Q: What sequence folds into this?
């Protein structure tokens, strides 16, 4: 089984990237084949060169698109921007093959926020989108609030967070 | 595997009941063990006698509650009331055992509406609630718009609707 | 201008009731005509005696219904139950006159939670419902997380909460 | 009073642009000062050159940003992409000044879809975002389903749609 973890922002040095690596380490320790795709690697002009009439025509965009299409399962690490997910993440989804790009994929969602909302609305919005595309979202969503206060040296220091992540991963592997 | 279909309203003679029977017939034809629970059978005063400090204490309410708890998979037939699901359905959920009442159940959602929205928001709201309770919702949601125009003698006359239902059931049985 | 504050649950001795009184005190200090309606006063069997074919026929239900219909502005105090609003609150809305029950009313939303979500999804779902009914919801929503830890003797002890409430009230009076 | 209408996609020759011009004509006939901003005019690389550490630094992006910031009222014309709004629209919002970019603005939402959903979820998601940013969204949302079938020569041929738009505009001018 192949799992792709998507870093859901194109911001430099994002905490989402650190969390993605944390998930990768945990999954590999359980023997999963697992790769990371970082939206930071999207071409700067993909909102023109890879969407609409240009869908599928940008080779650099297609590298990431194909890594997502090829996966059976996907984990999205989603920082909260303006009360929802990053626009870049949705624009990336808009450049995927339609309608089969996400069909029947199994998806797990992880939200991060500096504040206390933990991306509850961001993950709800994303769930709506993936349902629309006939993908199946794991009920257990991890919402990591006040993330800066709960990490040190690339590790999560909050025991409850680590426990929620373990439960999510365990269920996702069986999903 | 045991499937419970929930008629998501307590209104008399609801179309939701007819749709529930249609799903039951289709599921039984595929060999599934399948029962219907109708919110019309809820006690008239359950918002007092079966919630909060009285949770679990109303035997008539508990009959329905237990049929839901016992199921591995649940299908909710959800009419659109005021742009969302019926309040009675959420009040029923509020009377379920917490936090384990829906944990790890597999859920399929079917929305009905007289208008053209088909309960898109109703199903989104319900999905949020079931995710919160760590249940897993099938991506394929069936939204039956203008339902009165698309039924005759208890049968669905719209071929597209029948096709969407078949796909949903097929995927739900494997989910 | 007449403002009605709705205690959004029928639970006994709810914190929502305390918060409603707090809002009433603040509004009256600013000279507003302001009353509280408590869903605890709903008849125990209103899900049968005041909905659907019985809409408008239960005198005890109608007392509350009319207090809501008569108000130009409404403030809903909404505890988080199962990741959304209380089912009883939606069932109450289902018993309102349709389609004019909430049309063009101005609405402010206040969410409470024991946990850290503060009813973000509950308020989002309610906003969807009120929009569907052509009511207008103030952008500023107050979300009071970990409410038990931030109250003492019926007063809110968290300065940030008090400040958010003051801003919300000030904007709502001009809305 | 100054109203800015935002074409919510960067797709070429979008129907959203046609609808935006229709709203402009109607508003100007009522004496409103009204301009259109088209996301098609966003710089191709704005997801890098105008977000995060580069926020506010791209002059071409800032032209549009300032037209939005300067408006007292905003109308968003929002096509449905993948069950929600276009990612580019959210990325544009992510490049606005924070936290004051939308504060206290009055906003009206118009959804378009080829299918029957009319962007119900797209508009719900956007409402969540604008609420988070303390902007106020008009309850009346116009959802134009099966838009291609209901337009001819740049005009809306469906009487109900024209009526809903008239009501929305009338209420928005007083909002």
A:
């Amino acid at each position: 089984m192949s799992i792709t973890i998507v870093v859901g922002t194109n911001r430099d040095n994002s905490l989402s990237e650190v969390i993605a690596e944390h998930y990768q380490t945990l999954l590999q320790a359980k023997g999963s084949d697992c790769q990371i795709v970082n939206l930071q690697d999207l071409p700067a002009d993909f909102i023109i060169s890879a969407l609409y009439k240009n869908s599928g025509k940008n080779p650099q965009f297609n590298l990431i698109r194909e890594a997502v299409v090829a996966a059976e399962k996907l984990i999205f690490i989603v920082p909260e921007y303006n009360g929802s997910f990053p626009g870049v993440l949705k624009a990336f989804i808009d450049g995927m093959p339609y309608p089969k790009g996400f069909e029947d994929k199994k998806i797990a969602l992880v939200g991060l926020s500096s504040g206390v909302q933990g991306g509850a609305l961001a993950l709800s919005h994303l769930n709506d989108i993936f349902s629309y595309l006939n993908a199946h979202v794991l009920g257990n969503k991890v919402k990591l609030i006040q993330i800066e206060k709960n990490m040190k040296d690339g590790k999560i220091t909050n025991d409850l967070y680590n426990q929620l992540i373990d439960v999510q991963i365990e269920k996702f592997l069986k999903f």
Q: What stands out?
A: The interface with chain B takes residues 10-12, 42, 44-49, 51-53, 81-94, 98, 121, 125, 128-129, 131-133 of chain C (CB under 8 Å).
